[in-house]
TrEMBL record:
The chain crosses the membrane at residues 20-38. Keywords: Membrane, Transmembrane, Transmembrane helix. SUPFAM superfamilies: OmpA-like (SSF103088). It comes from Sphingomonas turrisvirgatae. This is Motility protein B-like N-terminal domain-containing protein. InterPro entries: OmpA-like_sf. The keyword Transmembrane applies.
Length: 170
């Protein structure tokens, strides 16, 4: 007795494994591989890793701030960004005679109530004060690339000029 098997006889037999189980196994192996990779990189020095990421994205390291060698201050009236900067301009031109120095102009405001009259913002008043002094420095002949402006609201109604040695440009 020989049985004849037709081509359709195999269609009735259920497969041993479903197709989705193979996909699930692939996903599980990928996850295991990912966690192994995470554990392997756990011992990396954080600073070296960040430096590598910065280099990969083309981010340049920021230059260290210039070493401060002299400071001066210009006092402002409360709520005002106008003051006569001639005295600090003369000081800055003398103190920053060397082309390797940089001038940092730090605008500040006093305690509560020392704010910009139009916006009531101490930060905007501090920026206006610093810009007023920086513009006077540029008008006096200081190259704009040698000036940087920072803001520290809430200290006193002053602008602090810091002359710092930045080193050689090369």
């Amino acid at each position: 007795m020989t049985a004849q098997v037709s081509g359709d006889a195999w269609d009735d037999i259920a497969p041993a494994r479903s197709a989705w189980i193979i996909t699930l196994a692939d996903l599980a192996l990928l996850l295991v591989g990912f966690f192994v990779l995470l554990q392997a990189n756990r011992e990396l020095d954080r600073e070296r890793l960040l430096a590598g990421l910065r280099a990969g994205f083309g981010i340049e390291e920021a230059a260290p701030p210039p070493m401060t060698v002299a400071t001066a201050r210009l006092v402002f009236a409360t709520g005002s960004a106008d003051a006569d900067p001639r005295q600090v301009i003369a000081w800055a031109r003398d103190a920053a005679r060397d082309q390797r120095t940089r001038i940092t102009v730090t605008g500040s405001t006093g305690p509560a109530g020392d704010a910009d009259p139009a916006t009531h913002s101490p930060a905007i008043l501090a920026v206006d004060r610093a810009r007023h002094v920086a513009a006077a420095l540029i008008a006096a002949g200081v190259h704009p690339a040698r000036i940087s402006i920072t803001v520290q609201p809430g200290r006193a109604p002053v602008v602090i000029l810091s002359v710092g040695f930045a080193g050689d440009a090369s």
